[in-house]
């Protein structure tokens, strides 16, 4: 196998070849890779591998199972990579292909840079830490990989501390404070992190808080470990007490709004106008939206033209810090009384200003309480907040900031940021790929900006072809750490969710498109997350901008959030069970709504998964979709049915004949009558005699027979389908009765045809289904075409209207053909009737039904002759000799066709007709469609008759 392999162990195992992720479906194969990677290119004995694969509890035949897994793994990564060496195996890979090795190398290099070049050290540490996706060797961190996982986790924490140290050296206090709050909370006995937090607080002018950090740590060390703080930490404490710690002097005066951005605000004119209007009339305005959507950028734009102070709450590691962060931002000294809230209100009471509170979501209750108090007691102060969710305080006005709505806006932002990052101008030929990339990134401004920055180094093709979460990092160095990568934004947002919301979010990754509350309850509920808690959790996710919606009571995940949630789902080992639950739910949905509407994206995802993992579910879902796929012209579902029926586990499934029949319907619609017949006969052979599961196969055989002119056989098959069908399978019964009616009409047995059509309508009325009503109206109209054209037209028009509203393209199309054919027969001027055929021809071309296209072109021939376009009519007739559709000579349609061609021969002469038919013979259906559309356009010319007759 060719292509470079890359291994990711800083999280759940990932193996990539040339950037594309390789599937590792089995735990044993994942354990095998991880255990061999731990040996760093050395041989690992077979006994050690057996112990790793089965956690020390090896079953009988473990050696054989090991060899089997080795063979399968070689099929994925190559025999030249997984090498046999006595007494076991080794992975022959470059150490630089493992993310843990790269991480350790980058941390060492950063350590050497920290003292002399903190900026370069911080950048290298950012790169190193961005490699982490979860606990090292996550799946095996409590087993054979425990030692390596702990060691790498310790190194990760040390790297995070070093990054904070670099930020302090660079004066980036806000970033350091936020990170150090999280580090000390996660590691309450870690001296280095606490010492750095003490320094950061002191440099921010918060001496008393710095001393409190020392006091709390000292107490914990004594109580839990019986130790005193180290001499280094004691020395730092003394320097803070004496104000002798070197560094920047605490700032005085209010925090200014960050300088006006150096890049343009793209695609936000409406939001900017709306925000300006709200701030002119409201005291509290909150910009709400998902992470990376551009709330801070919009706030900076509007605040830059006002008297404003900027408060970055990312520095608040705890709700109790919020008043102090406000005070620090406003340049207030620590009050002697210690009552920071009161001091803030006193200072702001006479002020006329805009306070911009950025990044509120992680300390939302504390921010809401303080903002409400300030606005109540300071009459000229206005507050603009940015958050994932609203503050929920009286008087608050909310402006929802969503992704860029128009593709042109997203591409314009991408092109502008590409130029700003030093990349090339976006070439016209690259616009389609850039548009597709922006769509995949959900129009999210941060993701688009990160993509533009990556294009500079990797090229557009590499960024387009790789998962967004893997490549979108390394944005502006002046951006906060949470905005340096897409994954960091999502990590931050996810950490703020309640436990139930976190569980639900990862499970919602199984939905490909829009879903409702009932869908989420059906798929995501279990003992860990009971159904009764899902409504509240889903509402919370929507409030916190992690789920889009509700819109028409439906929700959806942004693609980037879905990819992130899918990683979490796999990491928790729930992807298989949730995908199975999702497939079972789609089966139930399809059974409840056999004619639609149905969630196509979800059905597609369920079929794809089931065909790979659960043959029984695949067959069952394909069978349930038979009539929906036929009525709505969903060829892909009919192809999935063919795939499902051939799966090894499908043999013997009771619904396999129904799946084969669905595939046969698809072959029939595409004009492949041979394949349709073969599939239908296989379905009959696969089912017990008289089984209702093979009734649909009889309907397919009837459809083939009627279009090949074998009317008696067709009627027999339709009657057999009605007899065999389950009594509650009203769609199949209705369709078979209607098909019998139209076949009887073609044969000239009008009274029997109308009786069958009446039976069809009775079944449709019993069902109450609009789709079956449209079916019955069509067949009834067909039986009246030669007896009462006016009545027929009314029935057919109603069928077309109803089917069109339902998206039932097959029914809409056949009704349209009958309408235009009937009008062509009754219209005094054939040339005016011809344009209506354009709609029918375009309809079948659009939905891909080749069989009905042939029928439509055949019906068009008499009208072309009547309009004076005899040559075109004869050319079409020449092509139709090779078509799969035909009628017996005594059928009404055949009689009419023969009469029209006789008139053409009389006018043009036998030789001219022969030449025209020769030109048509062998032409493709696509060519004939073009020919017909040209003739229809030609009919509109005043001299159409003369032009059409010339050869």
What labels describe this entry?
single chain, 951 residues, mainly alpha, 3-stranded antiparallel sheet, 47 helices, 6% strand
Put the structure in a nutshell:
With 951 residues, the chain is mainly alpha-helical. The protein is 62% helix and 6% strand. The chain is elongated and about 115 Å long.
Helix-strand layout with pairing:
Layout: E1 5-8, E2 14-17, E3 20-21, H1 27-38, E4 44-45, H2 46-53, H3 62-77, E5 82-85, E6 88-91, H4 99-113, H5 118-129, H6 146-169, H7 173-186, H8 191-203, H9 207-225, H10 231-242, H11 269-281, E7 284-288, H12 295-303, E8 308-312, H13 322-329, H14 340-348, E9 353-358, H15 364-377, E10 381-387, E11 396-400, H16 407-420, H17 431-440, H18 445-458, H19 460-465, H20 468-471, H21 486-495, H22 499-507, H23 517-524, H24 534-543, E12 548-551, E13 554-556, H25 559-571, H26 575-592, H27 600-613, H28 615-624, H29 626-631, H30 635-645, H31 656-669, H32 673-686, H33 695-707, H34 711-724, H35 730-747, H36 750-767, H37 770-783, H38 789-806, H39 809-826, H40 830-833, H41 835-847, H42 850-866, H43 870-880, H44 892-908, H45 910-920, H46 925-939, H47 944-949
Parallel strand pairs: 7-10, 7-11, 8-9, 9-10
Antiparallel strand pairs: 1-2, 2-3, 4-6, 5-6, 12-13
Helix pairs in contact: 4-5, 4-6, 5-6, 6-7, 6-8, 7-8, 8-9, 8-10, 9-10, 13-14, 14-15, 16-17, 16-18, 22-24, 23-26, 26-27, 26-28, 27-28, 27-30, 28-30, 28-31, 30-31, 31-32, 31-33, 32-33, 33-34, 33-35, 34-35, 35-36, 35-37, 36-37, 37-38, 37-39, 38-39, 39-41, 39-42, 41-42, 41-46, 42-43, 42-44, ...
């Amino acid at each position: 196998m060719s292509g470079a392999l890359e291994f990711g162990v800083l999280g759940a195992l990932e193996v990539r070849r040339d950037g594309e992720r390789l599937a590792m479906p089995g735990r044993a194969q994942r354990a095998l890779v991880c255990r061999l990677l731990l040996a760093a290119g050395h041989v690992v004995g077979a006994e050690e591998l057996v112990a790793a694969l089965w956690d020390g509890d090896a079953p009988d035949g473990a050696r054989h199972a090991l060899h089997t897994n080795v063979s399968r793994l070689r099929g994925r990564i190559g025999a030249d990579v997984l090498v046999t060496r006595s007494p076991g195996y080794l992975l022959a890979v470059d150490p630089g292909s493992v993310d843990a090795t790269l991480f350790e190398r980058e941390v060492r290099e950063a350590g050497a840079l920290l003292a002399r070049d903190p900026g370069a050290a911080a950048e290298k540490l950012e790169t190193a830490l961005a490699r982490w996706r979860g606990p090292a060797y996550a799946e095996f961190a409590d087993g054979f990989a425990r030692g390596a996982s702990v060691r790498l986790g310790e190194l990760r924490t040390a790297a995070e501390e070093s990054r904070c140290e670099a930020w302090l050296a660079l004066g980036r206090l806000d970033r350091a404070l936020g990170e150090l709050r999280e580090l000390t909370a996660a590691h309450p006995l870690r001296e280095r992190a606490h010492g750095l937090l003490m320094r950061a607080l002191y440099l921010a002018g918060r001496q008393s808080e710095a001393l409190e950090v020392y006091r709390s740590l000292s107490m914990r060390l004594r109580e839990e470990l019986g130790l005193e703080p180290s001499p280094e930490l004691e020395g730092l404490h003394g320097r803070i007490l004496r104000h002798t710690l070197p560094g920047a002097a605490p700032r005085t005066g209010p925090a200014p709004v960050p300088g006006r951005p150096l890049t343009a605000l793209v695609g936000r004119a409406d939001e900017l106008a709306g925000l300006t209007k709200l701030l002119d009339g409201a005291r509290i305005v909150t910009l709400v939206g998902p992470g990376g959507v551009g709330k801070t950028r919009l706030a900076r734009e509007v605040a830059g033209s006002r008297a404003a102070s900027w408060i970055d709450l990312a520095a608040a590691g705890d709700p109790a810090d919020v008043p102090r962060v406000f005070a620090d931002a406003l340049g207030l000294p620590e009050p002697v009384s210690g009552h920071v809230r009161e001091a803030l209100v006193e200072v702001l009471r006479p002020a006329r200003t805009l306070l911009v509170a950025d990044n509120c979501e992680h300390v939302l209750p504390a921010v809401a309480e303080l903002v409400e108090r300030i606005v109540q007691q300071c009459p000229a102060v206005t507050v603009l907040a940015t958050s994932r969710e609203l503050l929920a305080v009286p008087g608050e006005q909310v402006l929802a900031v969503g992704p860029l709505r128009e593709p042109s806006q997203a591409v314009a932002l991408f092109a502008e940021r590409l130029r700003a990052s030093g990349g090339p101008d976006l070439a016209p030929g690259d616009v389609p790929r850039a548009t597709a990339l922006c769509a995949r990134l959900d129009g999210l401004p941060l993701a688009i900006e990160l993509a533009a920055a990556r294009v500079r180094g990797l090229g557009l093709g590499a960024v387009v072809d790789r998962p967004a979460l893997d490549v979108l990092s390394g944005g502006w160095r002046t951006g906060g750490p949470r905005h340096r990568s897409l994954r960091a934004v999502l990590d931050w947002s996810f950490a703020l969710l309640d436990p139930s919301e976190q569980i639900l979010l990862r499970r919602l990754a199984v939905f490909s498109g829009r879903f409702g509350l009932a869908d989420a309850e059906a798929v995501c509920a279990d003992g860990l997350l009971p159904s009764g808690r899902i409504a509240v959790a889903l509402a919370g996710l929507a409030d916190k901008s992690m789920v889009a919606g509700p819109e028409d009571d439906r929700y959806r995940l942004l693609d980037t959030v879905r990819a992130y949630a899918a990683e979490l789902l796999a990491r928790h080992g729930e992807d298989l069970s949730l995908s199975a639950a999702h497939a079972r739910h789609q089966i139930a949905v399809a059974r409840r709504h056999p004619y639609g509407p149905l969630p196509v994206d979800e059905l597609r995802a369920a079929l794809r998964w089931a065909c790979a993992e659960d043959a029984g579910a695949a067959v069952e879902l394909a069978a349930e979709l038979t009539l929906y796929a036929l009525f709505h012209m969903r060829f892909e579902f009919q192809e999935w049915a063919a795939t499902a029926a051939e799966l090894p586990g499908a043999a013997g499934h009771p619904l396999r004949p129904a799946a084969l029949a669905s595939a046969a319907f698809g072959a029939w619609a595409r004009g492949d009558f041979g394949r349709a017949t073969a599939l239908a006969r296989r379905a009959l052979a696969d089912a017990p005699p008289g089984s209702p599961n093979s009734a649909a196969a009889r309907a397919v055989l009837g459809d083939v027979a009627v279009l090949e002119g074998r009317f008696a056989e067709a009627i027999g098959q339709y009657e057999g389908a009605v007899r065999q069908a389950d009594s509650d399978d009203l769609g199949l019964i209705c369709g078979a009765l209607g098909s019998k009616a139209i076949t009887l009409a073609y044969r000239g047995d009008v009274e029997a045809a109308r009786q069958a059509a009446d039976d069809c309508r009775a079944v449709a009325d019993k069902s109450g289904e609009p789709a079956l009503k449209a079916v019955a109206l069509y067949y009834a109209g067909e039986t009246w075409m030669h007896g009462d054209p006016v009545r027929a037209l009314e029935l057919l028009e109603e069928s077309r209207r109803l089917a069109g509203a339902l998206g039932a393209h097959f029914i809409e199309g056949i009704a349209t053909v009958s309408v235009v054919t009937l009008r062509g027969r009754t219209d005094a001027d054939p040339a005016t009737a011809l344009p209506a055929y354009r709609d029918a021809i375009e309809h079948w071309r659009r939905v891909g039904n080749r069989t009905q296209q042939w029928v439509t072109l055949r019906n068009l021939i008499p009208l072309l002759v009547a309009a004076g376009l005899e040559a075109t009519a004869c050319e079409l007739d020449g092509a139709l000799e090779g078509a799969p559709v035909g009628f017996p000579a005594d059928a009404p349609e055949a009689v009419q066709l023969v009469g029209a061609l006789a008139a053409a021969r009389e006018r043009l002469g036998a030789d001219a007709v022969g030449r025209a038919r020769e030109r048509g013979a062998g032409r493709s259906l696509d060519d004939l469609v073009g020919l017909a559309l040209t003739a229809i356009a030609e009919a509109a010319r005043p001299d159409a008759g003369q032009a059409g007759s010339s050869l």
